[in-house]
Design goal:
Alpha-Beta Plaits, ATP-binding, amino-acid biosynthesis, D-Maltodextrin-Binding Protein, domain 2, binds adenosine-5'-triphosphate, 31% strand, 295 residues, binds zinc ion, ATP_PRibTrfase_HisG
Length: 295
């Protein structure tokens, strides 16, 4: 049911990235038809079809141009890219979810003094290309043992001494008597786009889609700040406001020399920031979430 004139976006069918990927698209205003178990779904209010696939297939689909876009973990993407002569996709946005790290872990009691401790050992992983690249960059030669799952069992089974696996909390490692010793890659979900040239109508749609997604990503961090301040404090306050461009300054009725300052802050606003603003002379400080934004 691939249709002409519509974009195609591949997301993970079921797994750690599925709900976040759907959530992002919903926040971008896309209404997804159909249930979770179908292979494809039509977006009702935007000319785009979703394809629900295994995350490992997403880089291939996007590279071949079967799908113009895909959402996938950087770990899966890098592993794929290292096996390609030339990348046929590009990363267009880091999405801030699916965060994890690819780490080398060692048995708890084994001494580890840096990458040279890996020399001549066996390391089990589902990411042989990324691991080999790390070993090469560190001038270490070791045997990479490819496993498709249950990598953390390898040391206990005597298949390898070290493992190189995805870690988020480290609880799985600990449960298997392992400790992380080296970070090979910090990963999060990314949006990728095919490098194939798109016909004009699809290129336009793709710009529209990206501007919506950029808008969602921008609002996730952004806040609208309102505060009151005396004229002499305005410069200092403007300098404190995190990531704000040209705040709006409005005179307060009945309070000469006092102004309301409104600004969109593109970075997180912490309590410490509010404290500093207050210290600089601001009062009645309000921080509001932003629902939608288009730059
Ligand atoms: P599929 O059936 O699609 O092949 P999978 O088993 O390969 O699924 P998941 O376990 O759902 O994949 O993980 C998908 C992605 O989520 C990973 O590739 C990684 O980018 C990210 N991720 C985030 N946290 C973790 C974690 N703690 N362990 C593994 N992956 C994680
Ligand atoms: Zn997978």
């Amino acid at each position: 049911m691939i249709s002409e004139g519509r974009l195609h976006l591949a997301i993970q069918k079921s797994g750690r990235l599925s709900d976040f990927s759907r959530g992002l698209l919903r926040d971008a205003g896309l209404r997804i038809q159909n249930g979770k178990n179908d292979l494809t779904a039509r977006v009702e209010n935007f000319p785009i079809d979703l394809m629900f696939v295994r995350d490992d297939d997403i880089p291939t689909f996007v590279s071949d141009g079967v799908c113009e876009f895909g959402i996938v973990g950087r770990n899966v993407l890098d592993e794929f890219a290292l096996g390609e002569a030339e990348p046929r996709f590009e990363v267009v946005a880091a999405l801030g979810f699916g965060r994890c790290a690819l780490k080398i872990a060692a048995p708890e009691r084994l001494a580890y003094e840096g990458p040279q401790s890996l020399e001549g050992t066996r390391i089990a992983t589902s990411y042989p290309c990324i691991l080999q690249d790390f070993l090469d960059r560190n001038g270490v030669s070791a045997t990479v043992v490819k496993m498709n799952g249950a990598v953390e069992l390898a040391p206990r089974l005597g298949i390898a001494t070290f493992i190189c696996d995805l870690v988020s909390t480290g609880a799985t490692l600990e449960a298997n008597g392992l400790r992380p010793v080296e970070t090979v890659l910090e990963s999060e979900a990314v949006l990728i786009r095919t490098r194939k040239t798109l016909p004009e109508d699809k290129a336009d749609l793709s710009t529209r889609l990206l501007s919506r997604i950029d808008g969602v990503l921008a609002t996730q961090e952004s806040k609208y700040i309102m505060l009151n301040a005396p004229e002499e404090a305005l410069d200092e306050i403007a300098a404190i406001l995190p990531g704000a461009e040209s705040p709006t300054i409005i005179p307060l009725v009945g309070r000469p020399g006092h102004f309301a300052v409104h600004a969109v802050c593109q970075e997180s606003v912490f309590w410490e920031t509010l404290q500093k603003l207050k210290g600089a002379g601001a009062s009645a400080i309000l921080v509001l979430p932003i629902e939608k934004m288009m730059m």
